């Protein structure tokens, strides 16, 4: 009990420790040669404890609100804010390569060796640092891990531990000020600017406790400075010098020039992969997919996929997409050097693609003209329709009234077919009786809608009942002497459309004509019909008042609340 009590006294009351202090100008800056020293949320009590175990639920916003940033870069303070080690590594290396290009004779063997060593060191970054250590997308045997550690040091991009810590933070806080290579700060910044200038604020926390326990990572961390000198310059120079006597070419091309290409190949993942291409899986953040980026980054160019499914060992999921890193990892699995290759479920990947396709289609529909909404169209009786047809070329098709004045002379079958249908129900003729019209014809016809025909077609018994009725057309629920209308069941039976025989099935996208209120407003027909707008508002498909009335009667039959009158 005493041990438990003492432990409880030592443990802070709050499970969320206070935020770390802001980054000071004296803080050790990130560079290509060593580990960045940044304050963390809480020091782990044991090496196996994750560094973000006690992270606050609102950590991101709290960090952005409370941390103090360094003053903006100006010409006066620029010299004091340069990270000189990174600056020299990025500028001196290409200068050496350019000097060697003009002073050293061409050697084909050295050129081939430079390309081979480029892929050896570059693959150690993409397959090793990135997909193995940063994302744990597969397991590697010890020999392969040591190869990644040794040849990865030859890329001179920092240790495994430092590189993975920054990359995990990049994925967790993408496009925020806690992202070390925030793409919103510009292409140059995300490419190399973040290494050349001291960071203006602290980057977000990311757990690397698993790497702290890895013996290979510890080995590289211990001997890192010696490894970058030996594998960055001495080894490629020695191979060219000892095997075919080209010491100068080995140093300038396999050493300096190769290193320059490896650097910018990796840097393009942070910059070009967030600027060039499209977003087939998600557009919430900046990562993009593009073949050119994949070509210059050993297959890391399908970055939109990678940010959506970071633990997938692949960046490219289609066989024809360029991803040599994926091929390398799969090849290692065939010889027992890699195992447990992780892939995201294909069904979930397809969902992401499907969602983005729908989003793009929705954006495209905003630029299209659609018919007037069905609910905004007036409901017109058969008598009013025929009367108005004497003055306008109106025809009824599938429950809608259409004004064909602008199309009659352009009709492919001839204007005479339009004229003969004026004032009639041409549904049967339009749906295959005379010609089975195409989808384009249906779309064009929908743009001519000016009203909805009461009951969907000419109904003789409705006209007769209406003519002999003493019901006031302006009243919906009661007669002039205060008597209530027939109950809902009688009204529904009275207006059954199926009593008129089978009706043609509506094509896709066309709503079925529903029964409308048989009591039209007491206004002239010309006020109820209108020419279709040039730019209609939205697509049809929402329930019209006719559908609401039918639903009202069904609800009343079931003893439910009437959606129109609010009674039961």
Structural notes for this entry:
The chain is mainly α. Among the domains are: 30-36 and 79-270, no CATH class; 374-459 and 487-557, Flavocytochrome B2, Chain A, domain 1. Helix content is 46%, strand content 3%. It contains 24 helices and six strands. The strands form two sheets. Strands 3-6-5-4 form a four-stranded mixed beta sheet. Strands 1-2 form a two-stranded antiparallel sheet. Strand 4 and strand 5 (400-403) form a beta hairpin. The chain is elongated and about 100 Å long. Mean pLDDT is 78; it is low at 1-42, 460-549 and 555-568. Keywords: Electron transport, Fatty acid biosynthesis, Fatty acid metabolism, Heme, Iron, Lipid biosynthesis, Lipid metabolism, Membrane, Metal-binding, Oxidoreductase, Transmembrane, Transmembrane helix, Transport. This is stearoyl-CoA 9-desaturase. InterPro entries: Acyl-CoA_DS, Cyt_B5-like_heme/steroid-bd, Cyt_B5-like_heme/steroid_sf, FA_desaturase_dom, FADS-1_CS.
Largest sheet, in brief, is: 4 strands, mixed
- Overall pLDDT metric: 78
Number of strands: 6
Distance between the termini: 68 Å
Note the total helix count: 24
Task: Lay out the secondary structure.
Elements: H1 2-10, H2 59-66, H3 78-81, H4 84-103, H5 108-134, E1 139-140, H6 142-153, H7 160-172, H8 187-196, H9 209-212, H10 215-222, H11 224-244, H12 247-270, H13 291-296, H14 303-308, H15 324-334, E2 338-339, H16 346-365, E3 379-380, H17 382-389, E4 394-397, E5 400-403, H18 415-421, H19 427-430, H20 439-446, E6 449-453, H21 460-468, H22 488-494, H23 525-528, H24 545-557
Parallel strand pairs: 3-6
Antiparallel strand pairs: 1-2, 4-5, 5-6
């Amino acid at each position: 009990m005493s041990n438990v009590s003492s432990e409880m006294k030592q443990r802070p009351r709050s499970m969320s420790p206070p935020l770390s202090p802001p980054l000071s100008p004296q803080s050790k800056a990130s560079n290509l040669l060593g580990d960045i020293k940044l304050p963390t949320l809480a020091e782990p009590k044991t090496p196996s404890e994750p560094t973000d175990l006690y992270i606050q639920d609102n950590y991101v916003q709290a960090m952005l609100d409370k941390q103090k940033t360094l003053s903006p870069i100006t010409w006066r303070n620029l010299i004091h804010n340069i990270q000189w080690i990174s600056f020299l590594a990025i500028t001196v290396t290409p200068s050496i390569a350019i000097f060697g290009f003009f002073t050293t004779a061409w050697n084909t063997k050295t050129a081939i060796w430079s390309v081979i060593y480029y892929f050896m060191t570059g693959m150690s970054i993409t397959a090793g640092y990135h997909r193995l250590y940063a994302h744990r997308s597969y397991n590697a045997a010890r020999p392969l891990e040591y190869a990644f550690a040794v040849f990865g040091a030859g890329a001179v991009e920092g240790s495994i531990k430092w590189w993975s810590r920054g990359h995990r933070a990049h994925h967790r806080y993408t496009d925020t000020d806690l992202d070390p290579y925030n793409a919103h700060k510009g292409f140059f910044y995300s490419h190399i600017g973040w290494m050349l200038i001291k960071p203006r604020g602290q980057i977000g926390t990311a757990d690397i406790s698993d790497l702290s326990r890895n013996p290979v990572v510890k080995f590289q961390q211990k001997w890192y400075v010696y490894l970058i000198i030996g594998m960055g310059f001495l080894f490629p120079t020695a191979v060219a010098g000892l095997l075919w006597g080209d010491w100068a070419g080995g140093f300038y091309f396999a050493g300096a020039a190769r290193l320059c290409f490896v650097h910018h190949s990796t840097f393009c993942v942070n910059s070009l992969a967030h600027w060039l291409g499209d977003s087939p899986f998600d557009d919430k953040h900046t990562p993009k997919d593009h073949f050119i980026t994949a070509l210059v980054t050993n297959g890391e160019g399908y970055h939109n996929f990678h940010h959506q499914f970071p633990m997938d060992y692949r960046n490219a999921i289609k066989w024809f997409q360029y991803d040599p890193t994926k091929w390398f990892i799969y090849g290692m699995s065939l010889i027992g050097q890699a195992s447990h290759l992780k892939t995201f479920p294909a069904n979930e990947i397809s969902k992401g693609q499907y969602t983005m396709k729908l989003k793009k289609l929705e954006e495209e529909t905003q630029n299209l003209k659609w018919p007037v909404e069905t609910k905004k169209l007036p409901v017109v009786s058969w008598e009013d329709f025929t009367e108005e047809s004497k003055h306008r070329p109106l025809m009824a098709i599938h429950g809608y009234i259409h004004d064909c004045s602008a199309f009659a002379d352009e009709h492919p079958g001839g204007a005479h077919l339009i004229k003969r249908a004026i004032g009639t129900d041409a549904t049967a003729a339009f749906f295959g009786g005379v010609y089975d019209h195409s989808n384009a014809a249906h779309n064009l016809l929908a743009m001519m809608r000016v009203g909805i025909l009461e009951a969907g077609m000419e109904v003789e018994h409705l006209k007769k009942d209406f003519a002999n009725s003493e019901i006031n057309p302006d009243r919906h629920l009661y007669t002039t002497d205060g008597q209530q209308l027939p109950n809902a069941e009688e009204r529904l039976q009275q207006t059954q459309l199926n009593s008129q025989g089978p009706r043609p099935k509506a094509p896709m996208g066309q709503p079925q004509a529903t029964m409308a209120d048989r009591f039209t407003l007491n206004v002239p027909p010309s006020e109820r019909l209108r020419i279709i707008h040039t730019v209609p508002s939205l697509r049809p498909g929402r329930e019209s008042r006719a559908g609401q009335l039918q639903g009202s009667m069904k609800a009343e039959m079931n003893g439910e609340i009437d959606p129109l009158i609010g009674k039961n």
